[in-house]
Specification:
By secondary structure, the chain is an alpha/beta fold. It has helices spanning 44-60, 67-83, 85-96, 100-103, 106-122, 160-173, 187-198, 215-223, 237-247, 272-284, 304-317, 336-351, 386-389, 406-414, 429-438, 471-476, and strands at 6-8, 10-12, 15-17, 24-28, 35-40, 126-134, 137-147, 150-154, 177-181, 207-209, 230-234, 253-257, 262-266, 294-300, 355-358, 376-379, 396-402, 421-425, 443-446, 465-466, 479-487. The chain folds into two domains: 6-258 and 464-483, Aldehyde Dehydrogenase, Chain A, domain 1 (3-Layer(aba) Sandwich), CATH 3.40.605; 262-453, Aldehyde Dehydrogenase, Chain A, domain 2 (3-Layer(aba) Sandwich), CATH 3.40.309.10. It is 38% helix and 22% strand. It binds nicotinamide-adenine-dinucleotide.
Length: 492
Amino acid sequence: MSDTNKTGRLYIDGAWREAANGATFEVRNPFDESLVGTAADATGRDVADAVGAARTAFDTTTWPTDVDFRKHCLRQLEEGLGKVKAELAGMATREAGIPANQANLIDSVIEEVAWTAGLMDRFGWEVTLPAAEMLGMSSSRVVRQEPRGVVGAITPWNAPTGMNVGKTAPALAAGNTVVLKPAPDTPLSAVLLAEVIAETDIPPGVFNLITSNDNAVGGDALTGDPRVNMFHFTGSTAVGQRIASRAAVGFRKVVLELGGKSANIILDDADLDTAIPYSVGMCMYNSGQGCLLPTRILVPGNLYDEVLQRVVAVAEAMPWGDPRAEQTLVGPIIRRGQVERMAGLVDRAREAGATIATGGTSGHPDFEKGHWYRPTVVTDVDETAEIAQTEVFGPVLTVLRYDGRDEEAVRIANATRYGLGGFVQSTDAGRAREIANALRSGGVAIGPSFWVAPDTPFGGYGASGIGRERGVEGFLEFLQAKAISTPATTNA
Ligand code: NAD
């Protein structure tokens, strides 16, 4: 990976440019606070220009209707991303502190583009339905899938390229034009994506990039612009709610991928040798900065002491440190404010009577700089405690006890406003499956498995979001159906 500082500019209407007022902001590495580069700090005028370019490209070019050309462009995107995947992975580590071995997930991002390009071949862009009688007329119908228009794609920092590409590629494949606004922490990963797109045949205005240090300028300017038809957002529940309310003006479509507090139910027949390393590893993945991670373990009373002891041992052995090191599983936290926030949550739990079985401290003994929180296990709380209800977004695992009945485990698992993921550990496939069916969440992993893949819908129930991404279900979100009827007796 290159350690050279990068200068990011805005990409609007097929051209690179500075912010209208020339402003820039610094991007700092959460590991050692070193400078990663600078990004253009867009003004409201830049946002308006980007939306205007996307609007014009949608309204005046053949992009929305030329499926073959779009497929050609998507294949170019896939190829282009493949050429810079080391840079993309390196940038995720430098900008967001994502451990290097996890930043390599970039392969699955490219696979997602390939899957979407493949879907374009077999997708029912127009489906003819057999004749039907209505109002005394016999009609044939064609159902056409049409793009929505300009998509505002707003992404978080915790998987920058995954999120940027995961929104941009299907939005473009469906025939929309895009204005991408990444998180202020990770603008440069998005600049790398724009550089790849600039080398493809994707026409000017079809993809535009706005980077901004100020959510009110970048985010609110985008959601306040009536020329945007759809918002595809991943981020916190609070911001998602704000975007939904702003999108309601003009009845604009939203897809919202929000927070989570996923439960992981250990049944009394679980194979603990497999279940415990998996459970703790998944919770601490990406330093605990993931929306779907199993951050609440539910343990039957008769196994509680043994499970807790094993969980603590795995958490304490978790390789925690320099995100560039191949063995590191838990790296730094994105920014100081996030460390303070999670320390506040754990400290308040302690004051309220919780036991901090391990961790519970900020900082790292080996590093003077950077933003750190030690892998932590909190116990002796019930499911209503703040720490058991709030998304921590850091390496903090809460262990909850239940009475051993499956229905009680399900009740506790569902006792949250979120509903993104669920996890079940059992050696009885039928029992685990019944629990999976009863969990109110958009995805469930039984045993050491993971449901996320390019062809699989991903999304949340309740406060975890609206809509789905990935899979055919996710692709359909970027489209709207139009039905055209003709008299059944004619071939018109
Ligand atoms: P965030 O909500 O603070 O920011 C997300 C994006 O929204 C950023 O680009 C930010 O600049 C932008 N934004 C902020 N205020 C805005 C406004 N008023 N208008 C428009 N845009 C605005 O979230 P974050 O801290 O970047 O990411 C962490 C959150 O993301 C967590 O809650 C996590 O659960 C969630 N997340 C969800 C998923 C999922 O798929 N469900 C995946 C990853 C992260």
